[in-house]
């Protein structure tokens, strides 16, 4: 009477733990196999029986009665799935078939990494076996369950082959203009503090999370394997941003450690930033539509995605506006990628294009005297010098002028994709910058030299160092954007400088139709100090007028500013006399604030 009937379904305690509750049901963490009773016989021992249980079409087990139990699973009963000694059929949801449900039989249950996983065999079609199913994929059998097919008989659902964001119709329900606004608000409202610990793993594995609670990648590509070679190359830089006064930093110069924590405004400034692992292993966030409930689905940089690596700049915790708060969209993005895309991260001073294998690189904020390879960092250089100028004006009203003024420049490395559905500030670093008068004058001169000479040099066109794929604003894109803005205002002419959120388009942008201007002849080298040839014939105006005496003292030939409107008499500018004992022809000496030869 206490045995199991012929043809009934039973659960087999694989590990022979004999752990059952008061209702003779196995505990939840016990590994079970399910089968049908085919026979029974007496076994050695008092009142012992052995049962023949067919677990599969070609596999039959001989099991003692003490290791058997009636087929009953409480966790499935909570989901209204009826399994009993008379039935072990369930409906299995298959994601790559568009969420269709197929009839299957339970074969096994096991406790893996803190959760239950099931193995089933489909009843129809090819009767294939599917393992590792979470309980969320099991459903009650109903009228929509497909009983005569199996997933492998049918081709994958075309929508499943698309990105999850395309399946959700992201361009209609969450337009990219709104995504750009959300990204900008996020970078403006929060900054990854420079003192935050680096992001640590695990970055691979199911049901695992990194040090900040983001899910680990369940099945990364082989190219993203973190092996010994990766650790030897990136181990000392991973997850950090470090500053230096030279570009000879990073894995290309493993012996150099010229890290600095404080510089003058006139000093060169570079930084090296590196992700903790490959970009494809870092979870960007949980993707869900704005009106969708729940946690959403984790998002990573896929092999088919365009990875965006942004440089977000902050000064004293205040976001630096940069040039790309309202960046243009990628032309023909829907035709090329199947969705509206943008190759700029709003709120970042510079954005670089990459892929899932990106790790890090060396970036420039203020190039050294001999560094002409500035094209890939031109937007960051402009934003940094603009921040120096703006904060010098804001701090010029301090009561104690004898105290050195300084700011804290903070950099965040931001990771996203061309969807701009999620972004994550992965790394952070900071450096103190002293705003001395001499340093600010040198910084102004350096920026003029970069814009007027270095950007047109052969070194900038064909650099020797490894290139970074800077996302640039082409000349035509800037013109079309401004013409469109002017068309919205009746009787208005297009103003190329009206939109302060956009930088001036580079003259060498692809598709430029105007002829190149003749190259500016280099002036004769005149020792240390002096003013670069690119700014020697340009009047000083705007916030930089306060540095006019210092530049004239260094030997600059500066024309007077234009006369005021309504005046016909020229304005006479008297050059201040040099202090006693100072040689004006020599300029600032080698021990000054980084005087250089133009």
Describe this structure in words.
By secondary structure, the chain is of the alpha+beta class. The protein contains eleven helices and 21 strands. The strands form four sheets. Strands 1, 2, 3, 4, 5, 6, 7, 8, 9 and 10 form a ten-stranded antiparallel sheet that branches. Strands 12, 16, 17, 18, 20 and 21 form a six-stranded mixed sheet that branches. Mean pLDDT is 79; it is low at 485-502, 505-545 and 565-598.
The percentage helix is 10-25%
User: How much is the radius of gyration in Å?
Assistant: 34 Å
Gross morphology: elongated
Mean pLDDT: 79
Low-confidence segments: 485-502, 505-545, 565-598
| Distinct helical segment count | 11
Largest sheet: 10 strands, antiparallel
| Fraction in beta strands | 15-25%
Count of distinct strands? 21
Global structural class: alpha+beta
Question: Kindly, what is the distance between the CA atoms of the first and last residues, rounded to a whole number of angstroms?
Answer: 102 Å
């Amino acid at each position: 009477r206490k045995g199991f009937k012929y043809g009934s379904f039973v659960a087999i305690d694989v590990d022979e733990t004999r752990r059952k509750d008061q209702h003779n049901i196995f505990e939840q963490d016990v590994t079970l196999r399910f089968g049908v009773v085919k026979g029974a016989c007496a076994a050695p021992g008092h009142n012992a029986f052995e049962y023949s249980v067919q677990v599969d079409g070609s596999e039959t087990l001989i099991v003692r009665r003490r290791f058997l139990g009636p087929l009953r699973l409480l966790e499935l009963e909570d989901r209204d799935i009826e399994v009993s000694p008379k039935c072990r059929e369930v409906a299995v949801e298959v994601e790559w078939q568009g969420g269709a449900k197929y009839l299957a039989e339970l074969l096994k249950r096991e406790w893996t990494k803190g959760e239950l996983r099931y193995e089933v065999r489909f009843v129809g079609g090819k009767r294939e076996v599917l393992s590792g199913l979470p309980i969320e994929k099991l459903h009650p059998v109903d009228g929509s369950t497909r009983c005569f097919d199996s997933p492998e008989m049918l081709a994958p659902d075309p929508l499943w082959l698309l990105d999850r964001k395309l399946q959700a119709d992201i361009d209609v329900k969450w337009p990219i203009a709104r995504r750009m606004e959300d990204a900008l608000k996020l970078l403006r409202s929060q900054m990854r503090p420079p003192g935050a610990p680096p992001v640590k793993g695990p970055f691979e594995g199911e049901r695992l999370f990194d040090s900040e609670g983001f899910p680990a990648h369940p099945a990364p590509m082989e190219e993203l394997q973190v092996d010994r070679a990766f650790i030897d190359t990136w181990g000392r830089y991973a997850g950090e941003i470090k500053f230096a006064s030279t570009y000879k930093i990073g894995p290309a110069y493993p012996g150099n450690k010229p890290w600095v924590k404080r510089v003058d405004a006139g000093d060169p400034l570079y930084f090296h930033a590196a992700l903790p692992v490959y970009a494809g292993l870092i979870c960007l966030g949980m993707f869900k539509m704005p009106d969708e409930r729940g946690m959403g689905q984790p998002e990573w940089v896929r092999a088919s995605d365009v990875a965006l690596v942004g440089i977000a700049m902050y000064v004293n915790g205040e976001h630096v506006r940069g040039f790309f708060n309202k960046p243009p969209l990628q032309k023909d993005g829907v035709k090329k990628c199947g969705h509206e895309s943008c190759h700029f991260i709003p709120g970042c001073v510079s954005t670089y294009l990459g892929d899932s294998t990106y790790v890090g690189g060396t970036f420039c904020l203020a190039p050294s005297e001999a560094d002409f390879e500035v094209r890939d960092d031109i937007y960051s250089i402009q934003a940094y010098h603009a921040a120096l100028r703006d904060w010098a004006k804001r701090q010029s009203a301090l009561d104690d002028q004898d105290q050195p003024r300084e700011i804290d420049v903070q950099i965040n490395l931001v990771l996203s994709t061309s969807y701009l559905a999620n972004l994550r500030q992965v790394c952070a670093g900071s450096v103190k910058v002293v705003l001395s008068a001499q340093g600010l004058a040198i910084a102004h001169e350096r920026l003029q030299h970069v814009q007027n000479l270095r950007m047109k040099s052969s070194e900038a066109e064909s650099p020797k160092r490894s290139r970074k794929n800077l996302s640039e604003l082409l000349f035509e894109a800037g013109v079309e954007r401004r013409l469109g803005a002017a068309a919205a205002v009746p009787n208005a002419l297009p103003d190329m400088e009206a939109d302060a959120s956009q930088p001036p388009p580079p003259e060498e942008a692809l598709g430029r139709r105007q002829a190149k201007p003749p190259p500016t002849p280099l002036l004769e080298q005149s020792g240390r100090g002096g003013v670069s040839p690119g700014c020697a014939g340009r009047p000083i105006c705007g916030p930089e007028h306060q540095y006019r005496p210092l530049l004239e003292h260094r030997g600059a030939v500066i024309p007077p500013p234009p006369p005021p409107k309504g005046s016909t008499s020229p304005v006479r500018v008297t050059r201040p006399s040099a202090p006693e004992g100072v040689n004006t022809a020599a300029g600032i000496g080698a021990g000054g604030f980084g005087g250089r030869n133009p």
